[in-house]
Write a structure and sequence with these properties.
It is a single chain. The chain is mainly α and 76 residues long. The protein has one domain. The chain has four helices and no strands. The longest helix is centred in the N-terminal third of the chain and has 25 residues.
Length: 76
């Protein structure tokens, strides 16, 4: 009973934060901060959210790595 209630509360809060983050994509605001927070809240209970959060972290990590081709072409 309590786990179902906890899951429902997490889903409502996390879903609300995630939807606000999605709205902030077109509205002025820090969507790139709010969306991962919503996913992190949802990831505490849902596997699909853990997977989405993991993919987002990998995407950011790939974007931070310097590209070898750009470095080589800049040296020429």
């Amino acid at each position: 009973m309590f786990s179902a209630l906890r899951k429902l509360i997490i889903a409502v809060i996390g879903g609300t934060v995630l939807l606000i983050g999605i709205a902030l994509i077109v509205l002025p605001g820090p969507a790139f901060i709010v969306i991962p927070v919503g996913l992190a809240i949802l990831a505490s209970e849902f596997a699909w959210a853990r997977h989405a959060l993991k993919r987002a972290r990998e995407f950011v990590a790939r974007r931070k790595e310097p590209k070898q081709e750009a470095l080589v072409s800049a040296e020429k």
